[in-house]
Amino acid sequence: QVQLVESGGGLVQAGASLRLSCAASGRTSSIIVMAWFRQAPGKEREFVGAITWSGGSTSYPESVKGRFTISRDNVKNTMTLQMNKLKPEDTGVYYCAASYVPRLWPPREYEYWGQGTQVIVSS
């Protein structure tokens, strides 16, 4: 299996930028797709973006498109989420996820998850 650890969360003001990181270890050679999700209190977990491990192709929902950018270094086994022009509605716990057997692009289900890192955006 693979282990995922997120870092970089914090408290920032609206309009600011923040960069999150996800470090992967274990059977990283089996990773096909990695993704970011977030969950605000009382709300469902929301897809933030995904990236293919080999080709680096990305997919984003309209809520973050143009503001967030996902990148990866498959030599260092890390994935980053660069967040710009942050809004209060971006507040939540951000999770890193990995898929070994994706069936769709972007995948809807992931086999492995990190513990999450909290992002708070004040108005």
Please summarize what this structure is.
The protein is built from no helices and eleven strands.
Mean pLDDT: 97
Number of helices: 0
Instruction: Indicate the overall shape.
Output: globular
Please provide the ordered H/E string of secondary-structure elements: EEEEEEEEEEE
- List how many beta strands DSSP finds: 11
The major beta sheet can be summarized as: 7 strands, mixed
Q: What percent of the residues sit in helical stretches (DSSP H or I)?
A: under 10%
Strand content: over 45%
Low-confidence blocks of residues: none
Query: From the alpha-carbon coordinates, what is the Rg to the nearest angstrom?
Result: 14 Å
Which features would summarize this protein structure in a list?
123 residues; mainly beta; seven-stranded mixed β-sheet; four-stranded antiparallel β-sheet; 11 strands; globular
Structure, explained:
This protein is an all-beta fold. Helices cover 0% and strands 51% of the residues. The protein is built from no helices and eleven strands. The chain has strands at 2-7, 10-13, 18-26, 33-39, 46-52, 58-59, 68-73, 78-83, 92-99, 112-113, 117-122. Strand 4 and strand 5 form a beta hairpin. The radius of gyration is 14 Å and the shape is globular. The chain starts with a strand and ends with a strand. The relative contact order is 0.31.
Give the helices and strands, then pairings.
Elements: E1 2-7, E2 10-13, E3 18-26, E4 33-39, E5 46-52, E6 58-59, E7 68-73, E8 78-83, E9 92-99, E10 112-113, E11 117-122
Parallel strand pairs: 2-11
Antiparallel strand pairs: 1-3, 3-8, 4-5, 4-9, 5-6, 7-8, 9-10, 9-11
